[in-house]
Amino acid sequence: MNDLGRIEDLPADYVQDMRQHNLVPLWPSLRGVLPPKVPTRQTQPTMWPYGTVRPLLMRAGELTPIEKAERRVLVLANPGHGLDKMQASAAMYLGMQLLLPGEWAPSHRHTPNAVRMIVEGEGAYTTVNGEKCPMSRGDLILTPTGLWHEHGHDGTDPVVWLDVLDLPLMYYAEVSYHINGARHEVQPGHGERRYARGGLLPSPMFERSAQAYPMLRYPWAEARDALLDLAADEPGLEQVQITYVNPETGGDVQNVLGFYALMLRPGQSLRLPARSPAQVFHVIEGGVRMACLGQTFEMTEADTACAPGYEGVTLTNPHADRPSFVFMADESPLHRKLGVYEVRG
Ligand SMILES: [Fe+2]
User: Fold this and answer.
1) C-alpha 79 – ligand 1 centre gap (Å)
2) Cα 140 to ligand 1 centre (Å)
3) What's the pLDDT at 190?
4) How close is the Cα of 99 to the center of ligand 1, in Å?
5) What burial class does residue 194 get, using C-beta atoms within 10 Å of its C-beta: 0-12 exposed, 13-18 middle, 19+ buried?
6) What are phi and psi of 140, to 5 degrees?
7) Which of 51, 222, 248, 289 is the most exposed place for a label (fewest CB within 10 A)?
8) What separation in Å is there between the alpha carbon of 243 and the centre of ligand 1?
9) b or e along 269-284 (b: 16 or more beta carbons within 10 Å of the residue's beta carbon)?
């Protein structure tokens, strides 16, 4: 491939003239925006150990009252993008959020889609359009685009959860905004019981639900059992993984990001192929050695890491006597909609 002309090759007054008229020559930047074969990626393999995050988050609980924060969050920022960009990857934002006993994070809704993966503590809840979703370790709670949500805490100890949002994409697309609302009357949650049995869906008057988000809470106890059953059913299965789906359609739970849970058998090493989307890993139980792009992270419970797209990732369970469980998020739904989803093997 021949080298293209550089900006320095052009007369300075010519460049100046163009810039004054809001014009820029393409050829000096062409290879940057359309590189050969592999995209330019700012996302770097990065780990955020919970042992590092937790004391700093608890300090935020002392320093900043909830009224001054609304959402008391430390953002897990990927240094490859620059910390001020507050993004883990091109489309994913990660934040560790702390709610102390008795606190309340007021009702709002926004265009970005969010999920919560509960990391620590009992007694907190999220209401989504008024439906109460209790929060326990490993539960996944959806707060999709446009749905009212607020957080409360009736327990006695700090509660921490991992927020995963498509905020960087929404912000980039200039569609990110929020609206504050009044406190909702809380209804008990129901979705996870209604959809608790595989292949059996409610159909009152022979009609299926047309709700875009029929299920808002995915209890960890169910996901964990599903993984253990799958592993027992298929002893030779290499990738013991489930996907969080909309139970009515079988499709992705949200429009932009995809969510999964993975079980590594005792001592197992699993090579995830190079795929186009960036990925996030959060250890729910056990431990994981994650290797990507020559870097290795020793992850223990509640640690979080991310990997750029187009790179293979190897996950190893260092424990010979017990399985490890990992929550994963990626940009697959977005890539499929854009028509750029790739598995390179
Ligand atoms: Fe929110």
Assistant:
1) 24
2) 15
3) 67
4) 14
5) middle
6) -110, 125
7) 51
8) 23
9) ebebebbbbbbbbbbb
- Mark residue 90 as left, alpha or beta (left: phi above 0; alpha: psi -120 to 50; beta: remaining): alpha
Per-residue pLDDT of 118-158, as tens digits, reads 999 999 999 999 899 999 999 999 999 999 999 999 999 99
Q: In this structure, which amino acid lies at residue 317?
A: N
Using alpha carbons, list the distances in angstroms from residue 157 to 44, 53, 123, 160, 330.
Answer: 34, 17, 8, 10, 31
How far, in Å, from the CA of 168 to the mean position of ligand 1?
Answer: 14
Q: Which residues of 127-136 are buried (b: 16+ CB within 10 A; e: fewer)?
A: bbeebbbbbb
CB 131 within 8 A of CB 191: yes
- Rounded to the nearest whole angstrom, what is the distance from the C-alpha of residue 92 to the centroid of ligand 1? 15
Q: How far is the CA of 16 from the centre of ligand 1 (A)?
A: 44
pLDDT at 185: 76
Q: What's the 107 CA to ligand 1 centre distance in angstroms? A: 8
Cα separation, 157 vs 272, whole angstroms: 37
pLDDT of residue 11: 97
pLDDT score of 42? 97
Residue of 284, 272, 268, 275 lying closest to 326 (CA atoms): 284
Cα separation, 221 vs 198, whole angstroms:
15
Give counts: helices (H), strands (E), the chain.
8, 22
φ/ψ (deg, to 5) at 209: -65, 135
pLDDT tens for each residue of 150-196: 999 999 999 999 999 999 999 999 999 999 988 777 777 766 788 98
Residue 115 exposure: Cα atoms within 13 Å on the Cβ side? 30
Place of tokens 């209604």: 194
Q: Separation of 344 CA from ligand 1 center, angstroms?
A: 35
**Tokens representing 46?**
């990065």
| Strand pairing class (104-110; 178-180) | antiparallel
